[in-house]
Amino acid sequence: MMILGLVKWMQPVHGYDVRRELLSWNADKWANVQPGSIYHALRKLTEEGLLRAVATEQVGGRPARTTYEVTPKGEDEFDGLLRGHWWQVEDTADPFAAAFSFLPAMPREEAAAALRNRAIQLRARVDWMRASLDSNWLRETKPVHVGWMFELWSARAEAEVAWCERIAERIEAGVSYLPAGLERAEGWSGWQERLPDRPFDAK
Amino acid sequence: MMILGLVKWMQPVHGYDVRRELLSWNADKWANVQPGSIYHALRKLTEEGLLRAVATEQVGGRPARTTYEVTPKGEDEFDGLLRGHWWQVEDTADPFAAAFSFLPAMPREEAAAALRNRAIQLRARVDWMRASLDSNWLRETKPVHVGWMFELWSARAEAEVAWCERIAERIEAGVSYLPAGLERAEGWSGWQERLPDRPFDAK
DNA sequence: AGCGTAATAGCCAAGTTTGACTAAACCGCG
DNA sequence: CGCGGTTTAGTCAAACTTGGCTATTACGCT
């Protein structure tokens, strides 16, 4: 719940402001906040006494908007949460890893092609972020640490590009997927490797 | 929904088998599957016609267990999902990035310390994974691509270690957080930097 | 002036996820 | 043999998330 944090540095705000700010950060992608959840979160935080509704104004016939502020209790809670995420490394869900764990279910050719494609997509992102870092737009209108986040993301992505290419080569080389010393042992029938049955299209 | 995939290569299985397999992979951490969601998923997939309940046996007075198999429709669906995740790079939620975006709310000293700490934690993970890669246990009992996943994770983590140290230095050096050219401009009052008010303990 | 599009503000029902809970049966061991 | 701990198998209510919906006003353009 880092909605709390946003309210804290924009207060007093109403829900729609928060939503706009989040969308302008593209935060729906890398934070865990889709616009739909904002209002629910605001109400829940208010119930818990972390926020306080300050005013409810109505402009014309539109939905009334409620403005919120952070309570002292809310500040403490936020500090605690923030510290937690800074000091503790959490392992985060990775849908690609999930898919990769089913490697044997992909025909070798396609797996290699997909990895190469992934490398290209990631490289494009890296290039885009590097370009942004050099741009005046970012340097002159965004806090510096936004750029630092870009650096983190591109560093990670660059490491992954190298990995994709390395693994693609191994797959093409025909390395066996089975554990060493079990090439023809029992108990791995479920891992029957998938042969290319129909051709695939690189999209 | 990669439960489907697991059922596919373990079939016929019952929920508890799936759960055990997932836990043995520590998949609750990096895939998006907590044990609690398995049974719901199985039922939903069955409703959708992707799975088929094969049998329901009762051993003693324990809860009856239902065994599932994948239908042809389910195989197709799985192939589709799998391809989707292989070919498409998704950006994944990153709680640390969310926390980092509130950098100005952390006292400089603590931010730097936390980053250094993070580097240490990540380094430990890398070391552990590297050691596993050299171990016979992994080489002889796990499919090779499990090791490849470890390589991916350590590559990413290593990149992040370097980043943490670099950024910690910049923070300690006192680099301003404000956009270039706005050092004393208006409109950033919310970004008032937080000064160290109380000491923190490195845990 | 008229009309289509975008922005404003928020609600909501339906779907998902989750941690905690049950309750019997098996295992080992003093 | 009894008894505490673990394993087996799964349920469930509560919390959370989400995409889509509403209805009004402002804006741009011809």
TrEMBL record, chains A, B:
- Read off the SUPFAM superfamilies from this record: Winged helix' DNA-binding domain
Q: Where is the Transcription regulator PadR N-terminal domain?
A: 3-78
* Gene3D superfamilies xref list: Winged helix-like DNA-binding domain superfamily/Winged helix DNA-binding domain (1.10.10.10)
Pfam entry (one): PadR
Could you tell me what this protein is called?
A: PadR family transcriptional regulator
